[in-house]
Design goal:
The chain has 1 helix and 12 strands, in the order αββββββββββββ. The protein is mainly β and 156 residues long.
Length: 156
């Protein structure tokens, strides 16, 4: 098998969660995941894929970008178990954005934990803290040591 075909097959297996799910189970994320980067290194023994240089991961409703993303996957199934993003992390969903220096996605809990000066922005409202956890399925967040700036809307 050529190296290019092997890498393409591996990426398809890694980035297509849910192909083998039961029909009645809810998907964890909407749509397929597309990852682009300047460099990809795969370690089959450690079951990891390292994306570097301007990494962007997109689903149909969410985008995450970072300088580097390390993806951990299960042997055999190739299911993603964890993603560690580092360096200028940005996540966008609808009108909201979260920025930080580091973020870790946990597939089991369907959550993303942001550290390193995390900041959430929704319009003109801003929340900062020492640690932010975004629960994807529930579309809710928790923030430790929070500081909130809310812009009052003017009555019309």
């Amino acid at each position: 098998m050529s190296r290019r075909l092997f890498i393409t097959s591996l990426l398809f297996m890694l980035l297509s969660p849910g192909l083998c799910r039961a029909a009645d189970e809810k998907p964890k994320m909407k749509g397929p995941i597309t990852v682009t980067s300047g460099m990809l290194s795969v370690d089959n023994k450690e079951h990891t894929a390292l994306f570097e240089k301007n990494v962007v991961a997109k689903t149909s409703d969410m985008t995450m970008a970072a300088d580097k993303m390390l993806i951990f996957y299960k042997e055999g199934s190739g299911d993603v178990t964890k993603i560690e993003a580092s360096g200028n992390v940005r996540m966008f969903k609808e009108t909201r954005a979260i920025t930080s220096q580091n973020a870790t996605y946990y597939a089991d809990g369907e959550k993303v934990v942001f550290t390193g000066e995390p900041k959430a922005i929704d319009g003109e409202n801003v929340v900062t803290g020492s640690l932010m956890t975004y629960f994807i399925k529930e579309d809710r967040s928790s923030i430790e040591n929070s500081r909130v700036f809310l812009k009052n809307r003017k009555d019309k």
